[in-house]
Amino acid sequence: MQTNTFLDTILVVPGTAIEHGMDPRRRILVIEVATVMGLSLLLFFYGLGSFGLVGADEPRYAQVAREMLHNNDFVTPTLHGTPWLEKPALYYWRAAAAFRTFGDRDWAARLPSATFAAALVIIIYFHMRRFRPGAQFGAALITATCAAVIGFSRGASTDMQLAAPFAFAMLGWYAWFETGKKFWLFDLYFFLAVGTLAKGPVAPGLAFFIVLIFAGVRRDLKLLWKTVWLPGVLIYSVIVLPWYIAVQIANKDFFKVFFLEHNLERFATDLFQHKQPYWFYVPVVILSLLPWTVYAFAALSSAAKQTWRDWRSSFPGRVRESEQVGDSFPEFLVIWALFPILFFSLSQSKLPGYILPAIPPCTILTADYLHRRKRAATRIGLLLGHSMITALLTIAVLLVPHLVLDPKSVPPAGALIYASVVGVAVFCVIFFMVRRRGARMLLWTTIVPVAFGVFFLLHYAGRILGEAYSSRQVAEYVKKLESDKLQSRIRVVAVFDTRRDVEYGLGFYLDQRIERYERGEVPLGDHILVARAGEHDKIEQLIGPNRKFVSFGSPFPYSGNPQHLEVLWISSSGSLAR
């Protein structure tokens, strides 16, 4: 295996045990693993609570996990006391365990995804080291620095709970295919069971069709039958069935709500209003693979062409072009990558996280492609595109604070000049270093700006992102009003004309159900109302002429009210006395 002299140069200190007390192979292993783990800590864990929970799903899932812990009921998920049967329980269990250990903190709610992302990178490293020595370091680092992996590793959601175990399962299946050792099928069945507890039947369903297509390409449908392993079926059943049976017994409508509505109807109809055009996942994949998009598409194209050639050569009377052990690995990866994208493109309900299981095979394929075709990294067209994308991504990250605070205006000239200079520097370093020093510099010249971008966003722009997208500061403002001005315990909080995530965010941070005026939930008693700023006329109509209100202004008094919200006190009568 080729050693990495650059790693040796920057990490091996003269006179240490690493220099004198280890053989070269072990020294490289220690350095690579330390680098992968250190980068994972930065990309997945640093600043995990820099800003509050965002969107509708993060605070909602975190609240379900908290109630599961407080109720000591680990069978039926509930949201403000009502059964919440949209998703299986894996995320809630893991988040509840984090809450029990660390408290009800934002970063604890995100730990399940961060830990699975770190495990994904480590498992990819060791799997590639075992089956594709030489490509393991690149596969781990490309996966870790991929935009989708970084993004979803920091979300309190179920997407990474499926994507990581699914990747372990598929890697285990291919290890069995290549070695013929049944031991590897344990990974397939065990981790598919974990995926089924994360998101349901989509995990074994995707795996079945990926293996079916791969077997079809190889003209060996017996692979499907050989994959059936009775100990594995038992393992899967023992892990999955207890919770599914228990939750069905406790909630008679679980089958209808979960299987029929949130699986079949979600796929076949626009029941949950996530309709997107059929080409929706094309830009999603392009953005998800940043900054490696150019090389990833080159790798996918190369593997797809090889898969087509191998399928044609599998006809009787034709000689197969790739008979060496392991030559089918790119074929397997391209099928694994493309099928989830094509499958969910047919769905009437589309969200970006649905295709997260397709991202690890893309990053692995990219690393395998760059390892097998080392000259590809220095090809002018690919290198230009990659350098340009990384530079533009760096510029965009530096301008995030300005774009978030005032998206309709042009950033200040000074900020534009500074970001542009940094972007040009990133472009020049990547392009000229890779052209001069070869493919070994591609990883390092790309990883540094990605790591810097994550650090910048969380260390310098975290507060701004939180004020723009999270309800944490709104809830803190409401609590401060309670103690400073209202001098009474908040019994009811309502929202009007706000995004859904404001409602769910306040629900988590105040640990109570939030009423919504639009649903006809106008409380009769005194209550706090969080509404879109400037809606006083509509509020008067909804509460009636005999009730009064007073505005306490913006919950963001020092940052220009990026969410355009206003906090009001609504009285139960014509008096504002409190």
Poorly predicted ranges: 1-18, 321-326
- Class computed from helices, strands and strand pairing: mainly alpha
Which sheet architecture does the biggest sheet show?
Answer: 5 strands, mixed
Quantity of strands, as a count? 7
Quick recap of the structure?
With 578 residues, the chain is mainly α.
What topology emerges from the helices and strands here?
Blueprint: H1 5-11, H2 17-20, H3 24-45, H4 57-71, E1 78-79, E2 82-83, H5 90-102, H6 106-131, H7 136-144, H8 147-153, H9 159-179, H10 185-199, H11 202-217, H12 222-227, H13 230-250, H14 254-268, H15 281-288, H16 293-313, H17 329-345, H18 359-372, H19 380-405, H20 413-437, H21 440-459, H22 462-469, H23 472-486, E3 493-496, H24 500-509, E4 515-516, E5 527-532, H25 536-543, E6 549-551, E7 565-570
Parallel strand pairs: 3-4, 3-5
Antiparallel strand pairs: 1-2, 5-7, 6-7
